[in-house]
Amino acid sequence: MAGKPSIVFAHGLWADGSCFHRLIPTLQAEGHEVFASQHGLDSLESDVACVNFTLDHVPGPIVLVGHSYGGTLITKAGIHDRVGALVYIAALAPDEDETSQAQQDQFTRTPVFDHVEVADGRVWLKASGIPDFCGDLPEAEQKLLLATGAVPDAELFNQQATGTAWRTKPSWCIVATHDRTVNPELERHAAKRMGAKTYEVASSHVPMLSHPDVVLDVIREAARSLGGQG
To answer: Taking every annotated instance into account, which residue ranges of this chain make up the domain AB hydrolase-1 (predicted)?
Structure first.
């Protein structure tokens, strides 16, 4: 694997590291060392720590990839000195003075949030909301995501941590134009603000599952920018 950048993934809400399963085998076969951070969505601080100890485990340079709230995590953890490039998939990317919630509040509320409930201090996605989360996947896969996704702490999006990696690291953004979970206009605004190379795909909130070839091509481009064969 020498000469190939490593790839580290950070998942978002109502997901876990397995949401990247359509990307990981291909990237491994192409010679990359690949890991997905497994974080509990218990606090921003602890989630960033999980990403950081994953970064500590793999050789640099690293392409750090975040989906949804995972974009907040790579924004914070991406200041790690092994990270050479950032890839945002339908993701948040708050600035230093923003929380994840503050960034979302600047844009029209998306339909998925009509289908959540707070219980025991966690935010649960109802079955009625799964079409807004991943409606372009087969029904059986939608049900699997609902059953296996990690459930976030209710205050997670109001928490803050230091670090704005996209200010100093080259970035790529994938905008999901049919996203009903993170507003596509937020995704476009974030990409423009960070000066990212941006691609749009006619996808729900989970293009890594519904359009994996598009996402793979963007990750490959980011990897090539760091040297080696990408």
So the answer is: 7-217
Residues of the chain where predicted confidence (pLDDT) is lower than 50: 1, 229-230
pTM over 0.85: yes
In sequence order, the β-bridge partners of residue 7 are 34, 63
DSSP letter at 204? -
Q: Given this model, what pLDDT does residue 228 score?
A: 56
pLDDT value at position 229? 47
Q: Are 223 and 5 in contact (CB under 8 A)?
A: yes
Name the residue among 160, 182, 148 with its Cα closest to residue 66. 182
User: CA gyration radius for the chain?
Assistant: 16
Are 115 and 125 in contact by the 8 Å Cβ rule? The answer is yes
Query: Is-contact 58 33, C-beta < 8 A?
Result: yes
Residues 6+ apart with CB under 8 A from 216: 23, 26, 27
Which residue in the block uniquely carries the two structure tokens 């481009």?
221
How far is residue 182's CA from residue 180's CA, in Å, rounded to a whole number? 6
For residue 162, give every residue at least 6 positions away whose Cβ sits within 8 Å of its Cβ, in sequence order, or none. Answer: 76, 96
Q: Going from the N-terminus, what domains does the chain have, and what CATH number goes with each? A: 6-224 (3.40.50.1820)
